[in-house]
Amino acid sequence: MKLKETYNKLLAKQSARAGLLLVLAAAITLExxxxxxxxxxxxxxxxxxxxxxxxxxxxxxxxxxxxIDQAEAAVRNSVWLAQWALAVPDSLYAVSRRIVExxxxxxxxxxxxxxxxxxxxxxxxPYCFQAPGEKAIKVSSLxxxxxxxxxxxxxxxxxxxxxxxxSEPYIDVGGxxxxxTTYSVPLYDSNGRIAGVLTADISLDWLTDLVGNVQVYPxxxxxxxxxxxxxxxxxxxxxxxxxxxxxxxxxMDDTSxxxxxxxxxxxxxxxxxxxxxxxxxxxxxxxxxxxxxxxxSIMVPDSEIYGNIRKMGLVVKLxxxxxxxxxILILRSVIKNLLKYGELNERKERIESELHIASGIQMSMxxxxxxxxxxxxxxxxSAAIVPAKEVGGxxxxxxxxxxxxxxxxxxxxxxxxxxxxxxxxxxxLFRTVSAHESSPQRIISTMNDSMSEVNESNxxxxxxxxxxxxxxxxxxxxxxxxxxxxxxxxxxxxxPVEANLPLGVLNGFCFKDQxxxxxxxxxxxxxxxxxxxxxxxNHELFGEDRMKKVLSTRRPSDGQMSxxxxxxxxxxxxxxxxxxxxxxxxxxxxxxxxxxxxxxxILHNDIQQIPQLxxxxxxxxxxxxxxxxxxxxxxxxxxxxxxxxxxxxYPEGSDGLVDIEAIIRKDSLEFIISxxxxxxxxxxxxxADITLGAEERRIGGLGIFLVRNIMDSxxxxxxxxxxxxxxxxxx
Amino acid sequence: xxxxxxxxDDKTIVVFTxxxxxxxxxxxxxxxxxxVADAKxxxxxxxxxxxxISSSGLRIFLTVRKAAAAQGGTVIVKxxxxxxRSIFMMTGFLNLFQIEA
Lengths: 731, 101
Known about the structure:
The structure holds 2 protein chains of 2 kinds.
Chain A: H1 2-77, H2 79-85, H3 92-102, E1 106-113, E2 126-129, E3 138-141, H4 153-161, E4 165-166, E5 170-172, E6 178-188, E7 194-203, H5 205-212, E8 221-225, E9 231-233, H6 245-250, H7 259-266, E10 271-277, E11 280-289, E12 294-301, H8 302-339, H9 344-363, E13 379-386, E14 394-401, E15 404-412, H10 416-434, H11 440-453, E16 461-469, E17 474-480, E18 486-488, E19 513-517, E20 523-527, H12 529-532, H13 543-551, H14 557-572, E21 581-588, E22 596-604, H15 611-623, H16 628-648, E23 657-664, E24 668-675, H17 702-710, E25 713-719, E26 722-730
Antiparallel strand pairs in A: 1-2, 1-7, 2-3, 4-6, 5-6, 6-7, 8-9, 8-12, 10-11, 11-12, 13-21, 14-15, 15-16, 16-17, 17-19, 18-20, 20-21, 22-23, 23-24, 24-26, 25-26
Helix pairs in contact in A: 1-8, 8-9, 8-10, 10-11, 13-14, 15-16, 16-17
Chain B: E1 2-8, E2 11-20, H1 22-31, H2 33-37, E3 42-53, H3 55-71, E4 74-78, H4 82-90, E5 98-100
Parallel strand pairs in B: 2-3, 3-4, 4-5
Antiparallel strand pairs in B: 1-2
């Protein structure tokens, strides 16, 4: 009896020590994972912020230059007409009138003659303008005594420079206090003698909206300054056109903070800077708008960029604590119960109840209230998880961010408590990494790298990540050694899946991203091998055929879950469950029932196939009831983009294909044009310079100019050896 | 796509009928060679029945305009429907030609 007591004490001491060590090891592992995650996230977030800001700057700049170009074009292309009209000065107003009439961006125009050029009028400047909100074009004269136009900047500068000149922006007091700028060019008569100046007034009220609406982050803001530093657009309206950036900076407590950025902006440079002022840090991204001398900047507070990651860090810490708590709980119960080995039954019950608690904690980590998004009509989802022991190593997770459904399913090698710990870590890693990554491949790679770095137990996880864009059905996914999900469509196509390697096996493994589109009423079924490998008493497996047979009947997602469970139960009978069984069913039901992505056209690289585009657009146009002009414009944009591919993608004489896909949505149409030709980014090719007159115009570059002007957004990507041009038109 | 050319003294009337897309531009460009070669007079490009024009079609118009400018001729674009007119406006072509309804 005494021996037994000593033995018990010894056992208790040793178990307690081993338990403590185990908890300590687990804590260190979790903390290390956390740090690795944090560093990864911070770098990714910083890169993403920079990319976001720079692409917004570039896009906004292009839009501005486009309008500026149109105005320059209108003026320069009218010079020949003005030269004719010089012979009869009274007809000059008709030229100005024509410019205002033919060019929506121009609200006023004049031809002002140098004093004394016309012997009958010492000063002559008929002004045609369109007052805001009025259709009629009015005529007045700028040759008044009070105004004295020969001394105005718009008149003197182009004559001095002998070239086109953009005036400093100004507030037009007469025409309803709108922000304006004037473009003027010198005018020579047929003898080469300087005759006057031809101008166009551009209203800049669109600029305030365009620049003001650039929203990289909720609390970020943008500014525009003129070449002299005058504030043109800024969230503080009281400063607009009243102060210069230099004046605002001079009033600051620390005048040096923003001075450097302002100098670079005034010098027409582009770049980024981090400015500390008043204890807060701001990231400034800036770029010049060529021709006008303006400079635009986007300011992002530091807290906007890194705010999320701090919140996420807290969540991770909490989850880690929860995991440790769970471990301690289980260990304590195991040790305690070990000591009571005489009371077998009680011990068993206790362990069972503790494991029950652990299982409850584990289950609380995964979403299990169905339907998960009751307010959404476009998603019908269900999931089920049945662990073979009280706690299991299977997991699934899903959530919606930015109208994208992020979902995953995984299976940890092994079963029971160790597997469940790895499962908890995997799930929290998925949440953290996917919070700022939108590429399944990058999510998987980051998870794999941090898991294989600290994988001492050599446990691995088969894992599948999918991201479904709920606005267009675009499904991107990446697999890490998991069973291929089943995609249920009209054609019952299987989801082609690269096997790759499970998570935690090989640090730095290069995972492949894949993509497809889901149509209205398509569904995807994900499962772990506990389903197909469920065994009956004769050691037969449930198998894929039985699984597919259940799926072949169309049911709502919860019906599908219970039908599958029922089929397994019936098959297995009295045999004990050997492995965890997990299923996830996602049924895609976008609100727009006409939502279809299977409008497809494939052409050879032969220019004679171009007329097929007209039919293609015609079917879409009649389906969406588009008007004639919109249909024609779409046809034109498509023809230009496809012609580009046919002419330049493939070497002369070789056969190649152009794939055109149309995605039809409620309020927009997207065309995706792809080819396997040489890398070629048409959006980077030089556009036609529509500012040139007929004589200087190059015959080319008009195509991409038309595409840009017709479509609302155009973007190019090179992916898997393919050129992919995507263009969207709002309808 | 059909194009007819009618020359009387120093006045040339070119009538476009149908769709002036990339494949048809080649033929039209060939057909207009004599007009481009001799562009001294007034050239009327009649677009009443022109249903569609792509950038390759616009280039033909520009070629005629350049030839006329070099040789002292005048180009009048006539009868454009509103969708064609909007393409001309978008590309700044409206300013390059004398436009008639």
